[in-house]
User: Fold these one by one.
Assistant:
Number 1:
Amino acid sequence: MSNNLIRSILLAVTLAGASVASQATPVTVTFNEAGAPGLGVLDGTTFYQSYGIANFTTAIRFGADPRLPDDGFGITNNGSSGSVIFGEDISALGMTWAVSGQGVTFVAELYDAADLLLETFSSGGVGLFGNASFAASNVRKVVFHDGGTQVAIDTLTYTRGTVPEPATLALVGLALAGAAVARRRKA
């Protein structure tokens, strides 16, 4: 084997490995996981770190609430706003939300690591519960509130890690094609 062929193969393997290593991982958190902390204030909890959640602020875990249509478990804002803080960038965030009564507006805001607002959702005071989904990436914090009225969220879905960009996949393909051409020339 020539040195060029070996280099081409090593480059292809390295690029393919980098592409695989950066694959995104979908996550669902229902706040009813086995071993979850007891009902009550979640500030400073470490249980959800395996889900990429670093912390909560002014959030309370509760259960058996009919406002949440899925499993009745969730978290509510303990004050004017609650937040979920992620220990890494996440994307494609979705959640179930609920409010305490008709005409109450649910608001969720997404922030990046520099605390810059990325995206906002508002129910506009319509409905008692629903789903919110966001397209933003590089999300580090979700703040949910309604000016002091209790609101709740549940069934967080999001993606951890990064999705390989088309340019990265094109480089992998190009490296593999180069290795194939080099191999044919050698043969």
Number 2:
Amino acid sequence: MIRRTWIKRVAAGACVTAASLVSGCGFRPRGSVTELADPGAIFIDISRGVTLRRDLQVALRERAFRIAANRDVADILLRISDEQQNERIISIQQTGQVSELELSHSVNMQVARSENDESPVYNPEQPANRVEVIREYTNDTRGVLGKEQEAEILRSEMREELVRQVVLRAVATLVERA
């Protein structure tokens, strides 16, 4: 009985010590990027064919950004280009049928912020940042209808994750420059 109490106290002390060490070094859990005090108005500069505009607008509004109608009134520019959705075969069964696939969804992004009350301008020397989400997918040929629905759900989840990563990287970039 005394031993169990002692073990619980040591474990609790170790947890408190670990938590204080981790928080003391500035560690933050994934997705907890420091919020911007007043992020300002952002213009989503998006290439034709990129399908993320509406999802990005919703995600940015949730992070307290105002969406600018045009680049002239924007404090921040977010350029999204080169959207790609790919599918690659990972493994094949002995019968020659596809067993596993790798799905990927990616975009290039750049962020520009206004400085000294001037319009935001992209830095031509800074290359675009590639944001990519990759998932593996098992292809079962016996349940074709169910697998098609599963693939669509997976693609939808990948799209949400891609938007989340773009927003987090944009906020992180803006926090670094602030």
Number 3:
Amino acid sequence: MSRADPADPARVFRLPVRVYYQDTDAGGVVYHGAYLAFLERARTEFLRSLGFDIGRLAAEGLLFVLHRVELDFLRPALLDDALVVTAGVQALGRSSTRFVQSVEREDGGVAARAVVSLVCVSAQRFRPVSIPAPLRAALQPWMDRMADQ
């Protein structure tokens, strides 16, 4: 797993993922729904590398809910492929954040690209709340880096 480091020249968090049989359809091609799981895993590990555990945030009454996904499928990923799933911050609002992500193949091709918008909500009322200041401060350098690209 990659460590989140905004000084990293790659400017994005990178998570290695292997394609298992459960991720594929009958033809051995990654099923479209599996890409969403890969993307979520990378975002979760990105936040964990910054010191924020999704489970602990939920226990404290904060959830990040999916608001919008734009997902472009560019090249197929196949059974047993070694992939790298990336996550970077494109925008950061008061209660929302937008991630840019990709699923990259070992041969250098991009299997999929995504823009994922999340909203921080109260676990009790499911109403938007402000992203906690420490999390905002941890994400901010990543947003600045992404804006440079």
Number 4:
Amino acid sequence: MDDNSWDELAAAAQTGDKNAYKRLLGGIIPYIRAIIVPGLANVDWADDIVQEVLISVHKSLKTYDSTLSFKPWLTAIVKFRRVDFLRRHYSCRADRQVPLEDTAFIESHVTRDDIAGEWKDMEGALKRLPEQQRKVLEMVKIQGFTAQETADRTGMSVSAVKVSVHRSIKKLKAMLE
């Protein structure tokens, strides 16, 4: 199935053609898998991500502009769902949690003299950022919140969150050079 077929099937599915809808979903599955599988640490996750993509396509097919190509629209959904899945998976991993009493971990990762200066430099640079910018950067890059979650918690728009993070990283790089 080629890209033009997807365009036609998506347009027909929007008008209620159930056969076109079924053929579209069946036809895009190999493409979705081809995008997501190469970068996964666990190939078993692919089925979960494919399912999430298909649900997203189902829910948002009405927003697809049939005057445009379907493939870039689908690719964007695939990338967003993949990132969302990985962010959820890695944000709740128990193997990353270390009890404060674990002195061996603290000695090997926190109080090492060879990296202490780098941590101090980074902490100092973060403290020099304006408070709101630092808060947004920490939420997205350290705590693992999505731009949408950060926007909801801070009252900012999603695009403002993304711009803030980008500018913060740029400032940090300049401070640490």
